[in-house]
Amino acid sequence: MNSKPSIDKSELSRQIKAEAARLGFFACGIAHAEAVDEETAHEVRRWLSEGRHAGMDYMNNHTDKRLDPRLLMPGVQSIVSVALNYAPAQRIPQEQYQLAGYAYGQDYHDVVKTKLRSLATHLGFTPYPSPSNPSNTLTPSSPYFRVFCDSAPILERYWAVKAGLGWTGRNHQLILPQAGSQFVLGELFLDIPLQYDQEMPSRCGSCHRCLEACPTHALGTWNPHHPHQRQPLDAHRCLSYQTIENREDLNPTTIQAMGNTIYGCDRCQTVCPWNRLAPPTDIPELQPRTELLEMTREKWLRLSEDDYRRLFKGSAVKRAKYTGLMRNINAVGKKE
Asked: What are the residue numbers of the active site?
C-alpha cells in the first residue's frame, strides 16, 4: 500500500467542521481514537455485570470494541463526533397521546449516516475496505472512513464529550451548552490524525431536577452528600426501555408512570434547565408529518397495522413494532 500524503491537520479539521455545519449538524468536534479511560471501562463493566441493561442483550456483546474503538476500524486515529438537533418545532397537542421528541421525523439513524457519508465523500475520503466492497482497496492514498449512528458498539456520548460537544448530564443525555440535550449523535472514523478538541467539564452543578422528574427513579435518587455524582441508569425502570425495547407485557408500575405517552419518555429532558434554550430543528427530514400531528386518542385506539406502516414508514417508531405500540396504546387507554 502506498502511504497517505501529508495532511494539514488544522485546515482539514476546519473543512470537516465547515462541511458538517453546511449539512445541518448543530455541532461537530474531533477526538483522538484510543481506548476509553479506566474509570469509564470500569463503569461499563459494572453496569453490565449488575444487569442494568435489562433485556437489551446486545449491550453485552462486543464489550472489547465498545471500550476500544480501534477494534472497530483498524488504523483509526480520529473520531469526528456530530450532533443533530431533533427538537420538534411542532408537537402533538398535550391532551392527545404523546411520543418522544426524536420519533417525530424520519429515522435518525438513516438521516445521520447519510449526512456523514456525504461529508466524507465531499472531502474525498474512501470507504473502509470490507468483504462486500473490496474494490476501494485500489485507492489507498486517500483517508479511509466508517460512519456510525447508534449502529455499533460505540460509547457515543463518551466520544462526544471527548470531542468537546458537551457533557453527560445526570439524565445520561449529552447536554450541549446553550442548546440542551435534544440531539442524536453520529461518528465518522478516520485513519488520519487531525486537530483534536478539548473535553468539556460538566455544568450540571448540583441540579437534580431530572432525578426528581423520573417517575420510576430509573436515574437513581438525589444524594446531597455527593452532589456531583451521576448514578447508573437502570433500564428495567426506564420508560423508554419499557415502551420501546421491552417485548413483554407492561407491569402495573410502568403503566401508571406512562401518563399519556405511548412511545418513549422525555421527562428527564423536559425539566432540564438547559433545554429552555433549545432551538427547534430545521432539518427537513426530522419534521413531523401532518397526519401524525393530527392523531387523536380515538385514531390511536383504532390504528390498524396498515395505518401503522403508512404513518411510521421510515420512522424510528418501527423499533417498537406494531404489536408493541398497540400494547402501549391499549395500556394507556384502559386507564381513562
From this structure: 150
Phi, psi angles (nearest 5°) of residue 187: -135, 140
Which cell is 233 given?
A: 441508569
Three cell numbers at 272? 432540564
What is the per-residue burial (b if ≥16 Cβ within 10 Å, else e) of 2-14? Answer: eeeeeeeeeebbe
| Rounded distance between C-alpha atoms, residue 175 and residue 179, angstroms | 8
Quote the CA–CA distance of 166 and 157 in Å, as a whole number. Answer: 9
Q: SS3 for 274?
A: helix
> pLDDT in tens for each of the 336 residues of the chain?
445 567 799 999 999 999 999 999 999 999 999 999 999 999 999 999 999 999 999 999 999 999 999 999 999 999 999 999 999 999 999 999 999 999 999 999 999 999 999 999 999 999 998 755 555 554 556 899 999 999 899 999 999 999 999 999 999 999 999 899 999 999 999 999 999 999 999 999 999 999 999 999 999 988 887 777 789 999 999 999 999 999 999 999 999 999 999 999 999 999 999 999 899 999 999 999 999 999 999 999 999 999 999 999 999 999 999 999 999 999 999 877
Total count of residues recorded for the chain: 336
Q: How many helices (H) and strands (E) does the chain have?
A: 13, 9
Identify the sign of the CA torsion 36, 198, 18, 273.
positive
**Alpha helices for the chain (secondary structure H):** 9-22, 38-49, 63-67, 108-122, 156-162, 209-213, 239-240, 252-258, 267-270, 290-293, 297-301, 305-311, 321-333
Q: Report the predicted TM-score, pTM, of the whole model to 2 decimal places.
A: 0.93
- For helices 108-122 and 9-22, give the axis angle rounded to 10 degrees: 140
